[in-house]
């Protein structure tokens, strides 16, 4: 992707996804793709994202509130999402998050990385089934 600003600086390689996957534990591993998937459906407040995390069928527990907000800040710093303050309505100000073009590319990278893992795991299951015959 080369030099640039925000989204242009995001490196969408499967190898970096593999490193992230291995480095992070099950509870943190899939926060990013969950957020990206939910935001690909439309902008949302942080609380909306947190309440909908369970809709995304990925391994690991549904992340806690603090983990989601930390990940959103990190992702915004990396150019995967943007946010703005929503001051409409009578309630407190809330941030509205949106996925960026770089975030969509990153989601596609996650989809491919997960697809590759599924294929590898299926090959393992097939080998085990052959041994059991």
Annotated CATH architecture: Orthogonal Bundle
> What percent strand?
5-15%
Tell me the distance between the termini: 48 Å
**Total helical elements:** 6
- Strands of the widest sheet, in order across it, are 1-3-2
The total number of structural domains is 1
Task: Give an overview of the whole structure.
This protein has 133 residues and is mainly alpha-helical. Helix content is 56%, strand content 11%. 20% of the residues are buried. It has a single domain, classed as Arc Repressor Mutant, subunit A, CATH 1.10.10. The chain contains six helices and three strands, in the order αααβααββα. The chain has helices at 14-23, 26-29, 31-40, 46-52, 65-77, 101-131, and strands at residues 44-45, 81-86, 94-99. The protein has a three-stranded antiparallel β-sheet with strand order 1-3-2.
Tags for this model:
single chain, 133 residues, mainly alpha, Arc Repressor Mutant, subunit A, 3 strands, 56% helix, 11% strand, elongated
Break the fold down into its secondary structure elements and pairings.
Layout: H1 14-23, H2 26-29, H3 31-40, E1 44-45, H4 46-52, H5 65-77, E2 81-86, E3 94-99, H6 101-131
Antiparallel strand pairs: 1-3, 2-3
